[in-house]
Amino acid sequence: MHLPEFLSSKYDHEEKNSMSLSNKENKNWKSTETFAWNEGDVLGKGATAVVYKARRRPNGCVCAVKYFHERVSHHFASVALREIDLLKKLDHRNVITIYAVERDSPSGNYVMGMELCEGGSLYSMLDQPKFSYGLPEEEFLVVLFDIASGMQYLRQMGIIHRDLKPGNIMRFIDDTGQSIYKLTDFGAARQLDDEENFTSIYGTEEYLDPNMYEKAVLRRHSVPYQEFDASVDIWSLGVTIYHVATGHLPFQPYGGRSNSQTMFLITSTKESGVISGIQRYQNGDIEWSKELPGTCRLSLGLKCLVVPMLANMLESDKRRRWSFEQFFREVFKIQDMLTIRLYDCSVGSNLKIYVEKCDRYAAVQEKIAMESDIPSGQQLILFQNRELEEIVNDMTCEVQNYPTSVLHGQLYLYNKDRTDVKKIMIPDIPQYPIFPDIFPIENKVLDKDSHIGHKCSAISYLIEVQVKDLIVLQELMQQAERCLREYIQRITRRINNCVPEMCKLLEETKKRTESFYQTFGVIHDILYSVSSLAAEERIRLIARRYIEDIALTLRDQSPRETQQKAENRTEEIKVYMSVLVDKVTEQEREAITSCVGCMTEDRCVQKSHHLSTKIYEIYKTFADHRKKRYLSQEEEFAHRSDRIRIQKFIEQLEFVMNDHCMKNTAKMHQVTNKQIAMLIKHFIRTGKVDQNIKSVLDCQSKLSLRMEQMVKRCTDLLHRLNLEVIPKMTGQPAEASLLGTMGAELQPRSSFHPMTLTSLKSDFQILQNDSIQIESIMRHHAEELEQQANNLKELSENLPKPDSFETGVQASSDS
Ligand SMILES: Nc1ncnc2c1ncn2[C@@H]1O[C@H](COP(=O)(O)OP(=O)(O)OP(=O)(O)O)[C@@H](O)[C@H]1O
């Protein structure tokens, strides 16, 4: 059976109660009609019963039997039976399944057969050093969802549990190795009709609602008749959830249970929003907190959801305390959420962002801003070497429609505007306690050593996890740098690819512009001849009016200036880009050659695992010695030397973390962030280049627009020329000398359209000889010009459109 790594080693619980029936020190076998068990196979002991691992007839399946004590069977038979009656009715994956209730003979004690929960109780889990600072996030959530689901079922069945605590939540392991948490021990439960309250007192004192505590523990009856409703379960659940998240109880008076007055003071006088109150010294002040402790292993994203939930559940004033419905709503909302993994390189923290399925990008950005301190406008989020916005396409879509690769992959977060390096965020690691140098080793010392050993082992596990996280962080730092560099390289490639296209476009536009100047020049000249040749004064006037108009167009040099500006910009872009590409390449070489992190051959993870296992083993020996209460000379010798060994392992472990991994991580954070800062500057530069490209394309668009206007104007002119001027010219004598001058004047403009001009010149020659032909000549030119105008129009239509380039200008200017 495959178990998650952190759960794979056997628990104390399991070690104490080996699951293999054959391995048992063979005690008495007992059996009822359906169940058979060996009295050596104890799974756990409670106030009312002993629970054994058993076999079920007829198929021999393993199960658990709860063997109620004689006194319970006799005096509390009603309690046991009540539990049995209740359990028989229940059928839910998060509530323990009961198979049968039988009586043992000849004792007559009740025996309840139920499903076996191999993982032991949640309490036994939390009691292990490994989970002394709370469960890892994944398992914490399984617990939360399972208890909420079990409780919801119990509510539907009209049941108040009344003894909710980690000891009454069992871990069942399914065939896939997944944990399923089940509510058990309904010894205190009872059915509650709607709105009905109950007055009897049950529960375990650390988890008791303040009013119940006052009545049950302090035996005070501040209100003559106290009614307790289902809200008492909410309080106990709040304490349980806090315990699971942190590994310790939220409300701790100095001296523990013996200091019940302070316990009541803490729980009954705490402010709203406070989720823990700890008194560290005798009669000392209470340390209140509205946050989960720094050692808690939950992500910041989940803490943000769990803390308000706890605050509402641990509300002293039960009128303000959350109802079950509110609790269920919140838990199932969390269950329905999606998470996004995002490495924030400025503080070196891998964030887990909890988002609702229907959230849109703006909401996601807000959540990121809350956890990273990077305002949404300054966030640059990359997935592999692309911006998230590029991958998601439609940023207004709901998160649940994002590609699965994004939702399950690793994203990287950069600050577009700030490149300063912040201090890396490392979770708190408590100080190791010191073993006092007390000899001889007597019982008190054994107790203390076992206690200190437990704490040392707990801290060592925390360090082991920390070392693993640091190695992952180092990998993420390098990835974050690589990812950004590749992204910038993509941008530079894109820009470099678009520059030649842009140049081509500009060249074509230039040709067109010049061609128009040329065409207008020709028209101007023709009209000029008309204005002199036409016999009719009105025609000459019309021609002159057109000439003035055209002269204005010809004098306007702004298209040429725009063209020049675009050409200059393009040249600048080329130079700028070649420098940028060189810089990025240079930096890449630097990154490859500078190596600052932990190496595989350093074996940091393996070393820390080995050392923390050694520390755990010593703690286990100390725990055994404590149980024994008497040590032989040899054992005492071993115990003393183990104290020295454990200190040595601790020093080595601290060295691995502080002097190796932590230093390397901090160094890598510095180095990669320096590189990232430079890359961000390059990124900003590419943004500026994009702006320049945009400006070139703007020029290009302006020119195109201008060309279109000119095409229109040209066509219009030709049309009018046809209508108004040429027909009137028929039969009019030409003034040869003027035309000759005109022909000479056209000479300098002949560079672009030699054919047109040659033909014009010869036409003028003909005109000098035979003015009768003027109509056909003008028509000929008119057609030629019209043809040219059409060609230009076509040329402009066939040109690549500026916005057809993949320039990213839009995206960058938008963002
Ligand atoms: N189904 C089970 N599978 C495995 N272990 C179990 C199971 N039920 C109970 N246990 C173990 O037995 C211990 C005692 O069981 P349980 O809490 O039900 O007894 P109890 O006498 O009702 O306890 P309490 O003192 O809380 O009233 C549990 O803490 C747990 O370790």
How would you describe what is shown here?
The chain is 56% helix and 11% strand. The chain is α+β, with helices and mostly antiparallel strands and 815 residues long. It folds into 4 domains: 31-114, 2-Layer Sandwich (Phosphorylase Kinase, domain 1); 120-334, Transferase(Phosphotransferase) domain 1 (Transferase(Phosphotransferase), domain 1); 337-415, Phosphatidylinositol 3-kinase Catalytic Subunit, Chain A, domain 1 (Ubiquitin-like (UB roll)), CATH 3.10.20; 454-604 and 654-727, Substrate Binding Domain Of Dnak, Chain:A, Domain 2 (Up-down Bundle). Mean pLDDT is 80; it is low at 1-24, 192-201, 729-775 and 799-815. Bound molecules: adenosine-5'-triphosphate (ATP). Adenosine-5'-triphosphate (ATP) is lined by residues 43-49, 51, 64, 66, 96, 114, 116-117, 120-121, 124, 167-168, 170, 184-185, 187.
Layout: helices, strands, pairs:
Elements: H1 12-16, E1 29-31, E2 35-45, E3 49-56, E4 61-68, H2 70-75, H3 77-89, E5 98-103, E6 110-114, H4 122-126, H5 137-156, E7 159-160, E8 169-173, E9 179-183, E10 190-191, H6 210-216, H7 231-246, E11 251-252, H8 260-269, E12 276-279, E13 286-289, H9 300-313, H10 324-335, E14 338-344, E15 349-355, H11 361-372, E16 379-383, E17 386-387, H12 388-392, H13 404-408, E18 410-415, H14 443-533, H15 537-555, H16 558-593, H17 604-628, H18 633-729, H19 736-746, H20 754-769, H21 774-798, H22 809-814
Adenosine-5'-triphosphate binds next to strand 2, strand 3 and strand 4.
